[in-house]
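Sample intake sheet
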Amino acid sequence: MKVGFIGLGNAGGKLAGSLLRNGFDLTVRDLNKDLVNEFVKRGANSGSSPKEMAEDCNVMITCLPSPKICSEVMESKDGILAGLSKGKIWLEMSTTDEAEIRRIGALVEVVGALPIDCPVSGGCHRADTGNISIFAGCTREAFELVLPILTTMGRRVLHTGVLGTASKLKVMTNYLATVNLTSIAEALTTMKVNSFVHETESQVILNGSRDISFTMDLVSKDVGIFNELAKRKGLDLEIAPLIVDIFKDGEKRYGPRELSPNIIKRLEEKADVEVLGEGFPPEIIDDEPEETGYEVVIKGRQDY
C-alpha cells in the first residue's frame, strides 16, 4: 500500500515517521524542504505535487495547521482532489472544523474516494513513539481498510462514528485541556505569590522550557472551533469565549507561535514573579516502548 503524507510539522512529522519506521511505502510533501529531505534520507519519496501524490498513492494523509490550508491543499488546481479516484482514501489528521471536514468529504465522495477525519490525542511525545490515540470518523468500510495504517501510527484507535464525529470529539478534548492549562497557570502563580513550594505540579511549566510542541495560535484555532460548534446549535457558552479572549491576548503580547504554556506569562508579569521549580524536565518524554495498536471496542455499542 502506497501512502502519501502532506504536512511534516510537530505532529505530522512524527506520525509520518512511524509509518516510515515500520516499512510503509511513503511519499511526503511539506513547504519546509529540509523536513522533506530528512525523510528522503531515511527512505521516503518526495512528492512533486498533491495531485501527483494522490494519483500515485492508495491513501493520502493531510496533517496541516488550519482548515484554510487544508482546503487549499485539497481544492487547488494541483490539489489532492484533482488526483483522487475511485477506491482511494483521504485521511485528514489535523484538528479541524467538523462542518469543513464534511464539506470536503462530500467532494472526495463525488470522485469515488473515501474520506476519514482522523485527529490524534495524547501529545507529540506519544506521536513520536507510535503510542498516540487516534479518533476516526468514517464509514465502517473505510475504517477497516485503513486500520493497519492507524494501528501503526497509534496505539488506541477509536471509530467514533460517521464523518465529522472524530473532529467534534477532538476539539472537545482540546478545549478541556486548554481550560486545564489556564487554571494551572492561575493556580501555580497564586501559589508562587503565596510562597508555596511546588513539588508535583505541571512539569514543563515549572522547568521553564514550556515546550509541549504546541503554540498559542493553534490553541486559539481549536478552542475557537469548539466555541463555534456550540454557537451553531444556539448554545452560548460562558467559559469558552473567555478562553478564546485569553489566548488571543497571549498571541497579541507574545506572538502567535509562542508556546501555549507561556500563557502563564500574563500572570507572571502582573505579579512580577517567575513560576519555576527545581528538577523538572524540559520536555515530556514517552518512556513506553512502541507497541502495535488496536481498535478500542466499546461494549454494547449499537451505531454500527
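Comment: The longest helix spans residues 165-193. Strands lie at 2-6, 25-29, 45-46, 59-62, 89-92, 114-117, 120-121, 132-137, 154-161, 294-295.
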